[in-house]
Amino acid sequence: CASAPNPKPGAAPSCPAQCHCEQDGIVLSVDCSELGLPEVPSALSPLTAYLDLSMNNISQLQPSAFRRLQFLEELRLSGNQISSIPGEAFSGLYSLKILMLQNNQLSRIPAEALRDLPNLQSLRLDANLISVVPEESFEGLQSLRHLWLDDNALTEIPVRALNRLPALQAMTLALNQIWHIPDYAFQNLSSLVVLHLHNNRIQHLGANGFDGLHNLETLDLNYNELLEFPGAIRTLGRLQELGFHNNNIKAIPENAFVGNPLLQTIHFYDNPIQFVGQSAFQYLPKLHTLSLNGATDIREFPDLKGTTSLEVLTLTRAGICLLPRAVCQQLPNLRVCTLHSAVPQTSFCFSSGLQHNRIHEIKADTFVQLTALDLSWNDIHFIHPDAFVTLRSLTKLDLSDNHLAALPLGGLGSLTHLKLQGNPALSEPFAEDSFPKLRVLEVPYAYQCCAYGSCGGYFRASNQWEAEGVSPEDEDPHRRALELFPGHADNHYDLEADEIQLDLEDSKLHPSIQCTPSPGPFKPCDHLFESWIIRL
Amino acid sequence: MHPNVSQGCQGGCATCSDYNGCLSCKPRLFFVLERIGMKQIGVCLSSCPSGYYGTRYPDINKCAKCKADCDTCFTRNFCTKCKSGFYLNSGKCLEKCPDGLEANNHTMECTSIVH
């Protein structure tokens, strides 16, 4: 089709029909998106720097469609039906930096068309049908930094084609059918910082699979079929974020991360991990979160020597017999620690979340600088009067489902959340001023809530409910006591959400402390016949 | 199907309603809530709006915010174009280029010092 005549000097650059154009100095931004266009408009001004043709019905590009656009920096062709691109379609676009071809029907990389784009930095080819990546695909792209090939049909890593991209910094090959990573797959990608490989079928990873990735900081191997720990990561000295959750890995070996001293986050949940090497998590001074759920074969608490920045440790349903005394010194920054089902018949020097253990006794000087402590589901019969005295900053304490008959109050003045249900012998009510900052309380018996104004509050509120046609049973269960601890196995506790929720509840006609079980007609506050047993 | 949900929708919508725009998208598109006055309208895009990056998953494609100092990004921790006043260096936005690199005020990037 005939190209538009050159505009007269000084005349405003022409804007294709239906499109929206904006002048930016001497150059033009042209938006022709979502117009149902069947092909690229012809009357494009040579001064076009930004051209958006996305979300139209373009299935073919005319060979000369963009030939005069030497100022073009960004070209958006995403969301069309392009299945192939003529070799000269992009020739002459020497200023092009961003090319978006995602959400089209390409089945192979249009190598010929990409041959001569010396300044291209970002190339989007995601959400196509690409299964073929010719070796010369990226030959002319020496400035390419960002490459999207996710959501295609690749079965192999395009090793030879990738070897031509020395400037590449970020790449995603996620959502393909890649089943293995051969040795030296990314050999020349020394500038790569981010590599996403999630949602593939990777089972095998060569021992030298990641050689050459000297600057890699983020590696995402989540949702694959890895059978073994990805030992090839040992060469990634600058790695900061690592994810391999949702794989089939059964063991984390000794010195697993010895080559990755800069690691800050490691996500590996939802693996059938049974064994964890004692030294696996040593010398990771930047690591702040470590969660080891369900590692049933762990017999000893991992040695965390040199992993001094850890703030959150979750170690549930493990088989640990003893918590070493040194662990307090090793983890000076730990705020939240969750240790479900771990330690039997022993005292320990330090913990904060020990659900589902067989802990029998808690001695003095056991806890240090904690904000949350979860000791639910143990066999605790006795707590030393000074056990909590050092815990000035403790705000959340869960002692539910133990065998307590008494609770020492020393050190618990800052509590906002306290859970004690499931301790049948703990029958004494608490004085209202025992916990001045308390907001959520769960106790074994309803009458223990009466000290917190729940009785009157309950009846007034219940009348209120009846008046509004809302019976207590209709009350949204979510407004009952909330699950309390981050990292607790069955609770996605979000501090911010909880605070908002509590503020909301405060504004309503509710007692300031949310105490459960709520007393009621059949769980009265007063003694019946001089005996509290009758009112249980 | 709910009476207000229609099938005959525009662009990338799979289902939509007169009041809320797109309710769901055709496969492989990103669902984004755009605010127009007090209303929120669902739109389906082939790429996330400026200031957001997209992540594709088998069942949904999501947009999430870049960092505050970043205009466009590949992931939250990897910026591709910084906001004005910041220099881009390997995916990070810096107020000052590190030693050994010099600030290019034209491209707003940190580049190797050419001797």
Task: Describe the 3D structure.
- Chain A is mainly beta and 536 residues long.
- Helices cover 7% and strands 15% of the residues of chain A.
- Chain A contains 4 helices and 26 strands.
- A 12-stranded mixed sheet of chain A has the order 1-2-3-4-5-6-7-8-10-12-13-15, with no helix packed on it.
- The longest helix of chain A is centred in the last third of the chain and has 14 residues, at 454-467.
- Chain A is elongated, with a radius of gyration of 32 Å.
- Chain A starts with 19 loop residues before the first strand and ends in a 20-residue tail after the last strand.
- Chain B has 115 residues and is mainly beta.
- Helices cover 0% and strands 53% of the residues of chain B.
- Chain B is built from no helices and 13 strands.
- The relative contact order of chain B is 0.11.
- Chain A binds chain B through residues 34, 54-55, 76, 78-79, 100, 102-103, 121-122, 124, 126-127, 145-146, 150-151, 169-170, 172, 174-175, 191, 193-194, 196, 199, 215, 217-218, 241, and chain B through 10-12, 28-29, 45-47, 56-58, 74-75, 77-78, 80, 90-91.
Quaternary state reads: heterodimer
Number of strands of chain A: 26
Helix content of chain A: under 10%
Low-confidence stretches of chain A: 1-7, 340-353, 454-510
Strand content of chain B: over 45%
Strand order of the largest sheet of chain B: 1-2-3
Query: How many H/I helical runs of chain B?
Result: 0
N-end to C-end Cα span of chain A: 89 Å
The counted number of beta strands of chain B is 13
- Using only CA atoms, what is the Rg of chain A? 32 Å
Write a brief caption for the model.
Chain B: GO terms for molecular function: frizzled binding; heparin binding. The complex is a heterodimer of chains A (536) and B (115). With 536 residues, chain A is mostly beta strands.
Write the layout of secondary structure elements.
The complex is a heterodimer of chains A (about 525) and B (about 120).
Chain A lengths: L19 E5 L2 E5 L16 E5 L21 E3 L21 E3 L21 E3 L21 E3 L10 H4 L7 E3 L7 E2 L12 E3 L7 E2 L12 E3 L20 E3 L7 E2 L12 E3 L7 E2 L12 E3 L20 E3 L12 H4 L5 E3 L22 E2 L9 E3 L7 E2 L12 E3 L18 E3 L20 E3 L11 H14 L27 H13 L6 E3 L20
Parallel strand pairs in A: 2-3, 3-4, 4-5, 5-6, 6-7, 7-8, 8-10, 9-11, 10-12, 12-13, 13-15, 14-16, 17-18, 18-19, 20-22, 21-23, 23-24, 24-25, 25-26
Antiparallel strand pairs in A: 1-2
Chain B lengths: L4 E2 L6 E5 L3 E5 L4 E7 L2 E7 L6 E5 L4 E5 L4 E6 L2 E5 L4 E3 L2 E3 L6 E4 L4 E4 L3
Antiparallel strand pairs in B: 1-2, 2-3, 4-5, 6-7, 8-9, 10-11, 12-13
Protein name (chain B): R-spondin-3
Subunit structure (chain B): Interacts with the extracellular domain of FZD8 and LRP6. It however does not form a ternary complex with FZD8 and LRP6. Interacts with WNT1. Binds heparin. Interacts with LGR4, LGR5 and LGR6.
Family (chain B): Belongs to the R-spondin family.
